[in-house]
């Protein structure tokens, strides 16, 4: 992998809570800080596109994400995204040819101790380097095709459809 392009859209991974999980805002993307702290040995660039909870991402937002990724020459792309509508955005990104795109997020904010953010990011980075071209979702230690996965909100995990 020559360079990793990271596109951020917000979601829980970047949330900052001001009280007991009710009043929040989407903060600065956390992934660059996480990767620098971990001392990764590959080049990466971060393009922050949105700062939204994925429940509020629109079709127009998805098209912006798709067009931004398609316009870049980088072949390896990681997208951080909220988990509630990650599958829908993944379906839109399937129209991009010639790239390996892996989407990931977190079920608790990266700023929280014990967050799944670092694990999911690590899994996604391994996936983006080793999988053939296409679009994938890396969550809960597994890799999914967006066409065959859903978020089970009650169990707070992704599972096959």
Describe this structure in words.
It contains four helices and ten strands, in the order βββαβαβαβαββββ. It has 161 residues and is of the alpha/beta class. It has one domain: L-asparaginase, N-terminal domain (Rossmann fold, 3-Layer(aba) Sandwich), CATH 3.40.50.1170. Strand 5, helix 3 and strand 6 form a beta-alpha-beta unit.
CATH class: Alpha Beta
In CATH, the topology is named Rossmann fold
Number of helices: 4
Read across the widest sheet, the strand sequence of neighbours is 4-1-5-6-7-8
Class by helix and strand content? alpha/beta
- Portion in helices: 25-40%
Q: Which regions have little confidence, pLDDT < 50, spanning 5+ residues?
A: none
Tell me the β content.
Answer: 25-35%
Order of helices and strands: EEEHEHEHEHEEEE
User: What is the total number of structural domains?
Assistant: 1
Enzyme class: hydrolase
Organism: Pseudoxanthomonas kaohsiungensis
InterPro entries: Asp/glu_Ase-like_sf, Asparaginase/glutaminase-like, L-asparaginase_N, L-asparaginase_N_sf
Keywords: Hydrolase
What is the fold's blueprint, element by element?
Blueprint: E1 3-10, E2 15-17, E3 24-26, H1 31-38, E4 43-52, H2 59-71, E5 76-80, H3 86-93, E6 100-104, H4 117-130, E7 134-139, E8 142-144, E9 149-152, E10 157-160
Parallel strand pairs: 1-4, 1-5, 5-6, 6-7
Antiparallel strand pairs: 2-3, 7-8, 9-10
Domain L-asparaginase N-terminal: 4-155
Organism: Pseudoxanthomonas kaohsiungensis
Pfam families: Asparaginase (PF00710)
């Amino acid at each position: 992998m020559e360079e990793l392009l990271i596109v951020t859209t917000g979601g829980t991974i970047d949330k900052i809570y001001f009280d007991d999980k009710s009043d929040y805002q989407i903060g600065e993307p956390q992934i660059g800080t996480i990767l620098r702290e971990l001392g990764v040995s590959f080049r990466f660039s971060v393009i922050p596109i949105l700062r939204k909870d994925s429940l509020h991402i629109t079709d127009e937002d998805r098209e912006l994400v798709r067009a931004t990724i398609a316009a870049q020459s980088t072949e390896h792309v990681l997208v951080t995204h909220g988990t509630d509508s990650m599958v829908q955005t993944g379906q839109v990104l399937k129209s991009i040819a010639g790239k390996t795109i892996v989407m990931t997020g977190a079920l608790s904010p990266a700023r929280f101790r014990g967050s799944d953010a670092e694990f999911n990011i690590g899994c996604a980075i391994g996936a983006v380097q080793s999988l053939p071209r296409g679009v994938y979702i890396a969550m809960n230690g597994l890799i999914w095709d967006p066409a065959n996965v859903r978020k089970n909100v009650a169990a707070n995990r992704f599972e096959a459809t």
